[in-house]
Structure prediction request, 440 residues.
Amino acid sequence: MDARQEKLLRRTFLDYQSTAEFMNNPLIVSRAEGLYYWDTDGKRYFDGISGIYSTLLGHRHPRIAEAMRAQWDKLAFAPPMHGTADVTLDFVERLGSVTPDDLNYVKAFSGGSESMEAAIKFTRQYFKQSGHPNKYKFISRYQAYHGATMGAMAASGTGERKTPFEPAPPGFLKVFPPTHYRDRFGDWDEANRFAAQQFEDVIISEDPATVAGIILEPVSNTGGVITPTDEYFQIIRDTCDRHNVVLIYDEIITGFGRTGAMFAAHTFGVTPDIICGSKGLSSGAIPLGALMAREGMGEHFYEPGENFAHGHTYAGHPLACAVGIAVVDEIVERGLDTHAREMGDYLAAKLEGLKSLGVVREVRGKGLLRGVELVKDTSSLKPFPELGRALKKTALQNGVILRVDPSWFAVVPALIIDKPQVDELFDLVEKSLKDALDQI
Prediction:
């Protein structure tokens, strides 16, 4: 980092990290290709988390570049207050063709937070227009993260990330994820049943006539890649059906092949009423997100004089929609969701080998979304944040980018990874973890 870059860093801020601490060990990347980054000094890094779970097809995928160029030559922006673009309608059709069941009412946005914010507002307005005006509350989970805008943040259960901006908007309630109860029950299935039942308990206690929705990440990243059972989702689905509550999946991370199927809704076999997607939908090439709702919900906004009272300047952006179509086409045509399941199983088996170090409690996840929980020893099972903090540094020293939080870490490579590259990635992870152990 030169003096000019250091000066400019003082004029901006980095996501969720101290600028002063970053300057002690800065990472400034200058180019990327496939599964790798290079920094300004020419050092190569294995991208072990797909940018931030975004670059599903790797960096600089040629199909994405071609889709963007072709659309640029035709139309780069459409007038959102007067109409839409033909490619935006093509995007609605393509995305609706791969969603589960009838979730083919689609609106494109600029990212995950926008999509989640829209889902909250869409659900509240839907109930007002369908004869249930008192339904406005949402139940989500502690340790979950749903976005940085105010509504999405209020639905999040990430504690210290929210505190600087509180008080949050009213109407957002929380229950605990199944990991919170795992040591209180004899097995994981029972812990999941108990955790799932909490949603109905809260709905009844709050008055079902006031509860609009349940918001879930199928696999919760910020909680440590928490991976519930299939039954957990079915219990919640049945609860929603009994009490006329909308089930919303935050698939901003898990969507588009990441868990070994096009959506985690497919992976777990339980369909929500709304899916929010982003990140991998553009493979990180351009801001893009989407709300996908049941067609019957969308019909409540169709009558003359009615509309969804929500919009963004760049929602349904033609260049972004062209990229989104190209990404979905590539996943479908190459079977990358199936490939992610196969490579994910191979990666998980290798990560299980880290248990021999005596500091790994559990390897969790689905497909190419895997998390490793760190403990001081496998008897007490106490968290080991010191190890995580050391791992974050040794990983960068060894040329691999991981998500470390700090009592767990995630390994989430692009869907294009093959077995030799999984081996390379694992070797870097193993070396970095051993180096971290040596340091502390």
About this structure: DSSP finds 15 helices and 15 strands in the chain.
